């Protein structure tokens, strides 16, 4: 599959978007990093692809999964952001990016970033979702400045807090250790939801799941069971308040 996205079909009123679901490096791109790094969080949101598929199947919603590594291009960045094509990430030098010229940068944007976001735009126009789910995972600690991150789930948002304010107490009531704009703030990094959620006035639920909890099939199944009821309840509450 060469497109920078993977589509999951669904007929419900929600749409799941997972920007960092793949560690694929397309032919013709040499990042200059060891293969082992491509399995780490710097290259992919570990566990997000299987969890995203499971949630879409459970809830009956469509999904769009990013199908290119964040080291090739970070689909959750603005096209003029410094970190769009990272020259280094959490202590790893990405040599093939550090020497990329402006023409190479423009080609990556045109080949991957632009069609990915155009596909999201087309899907939103067709599905007319009442709620967007933005799904990511985070590492328990970063190598650089690596304080432990104790949250099991983080709920991220920028200006639109509608879904977050509903979901956070639901997660807490379910006994889930929940970060309110943690492990990082959606007011700092929220590019895809700023563009497609806030830009369209669509409420969104930005979810970060700690990657060690969803690193295998058992973890994915368990967290699908825990997340799905909160997502569904959030959607119902938003509908009731509309």
TrEMBL record:
InterPro entries named in the record: N-FG_amidohydro, UCP029730
Record-given protein name: N-formylglutamate amidohydrolase
Q: Which species is this UniProt entry from? A: Sphingomonas natans
């Amino acid at each position: 599959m060469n497109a920078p996205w993977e589509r999951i079909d669904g007929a419900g009123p929600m749409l799941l978007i997972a920007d960092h679901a793949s560690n694929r490096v397309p032919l013709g791109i040499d990042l200059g990093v060891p293969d082992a790094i491509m399995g780490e969080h710097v290259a992919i949101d570990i566990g997000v692809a299987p969890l995203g598929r499971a949630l879409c199947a459970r809830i009956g919603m469509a999904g769009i999964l990013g199908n290119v590594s964040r080291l090739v291009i970070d689909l959750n960045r603005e096209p003029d952001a410094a970190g769009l094509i990272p020259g280094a990430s959490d202590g790893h030098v990405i040599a093939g990016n550090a020497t990329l010229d402006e023409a190479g940068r423009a080609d990556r944007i045109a080949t991957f970033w632009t069609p990915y976001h155009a596909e999201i735009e087309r899907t939103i126009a067709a599905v007319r979702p009442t709620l967007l789910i933005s799904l990511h995972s985070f590492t328990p600690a970063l190598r650089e400045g690596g304080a432990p991150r104790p949250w099991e789930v983080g709920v991220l948002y920028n200006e639109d807090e509608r879904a977050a304010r509903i979901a956070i107490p639901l997660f807490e009531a379910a006994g889930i250790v929940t970060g309110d704009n943690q492990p990082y703030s959606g007011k700092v990094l929220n590019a895809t939801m700023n563009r497609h959620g806030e830009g369209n006035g669509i409420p969104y639920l930005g979810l970060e799941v700690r990657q060690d909890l969803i690193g295998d099939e058992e973890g994915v199944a368990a967290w699908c069971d825990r997340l799905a009821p909160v997502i569904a309840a959030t959607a119902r509450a938003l509908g009731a308040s509309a």
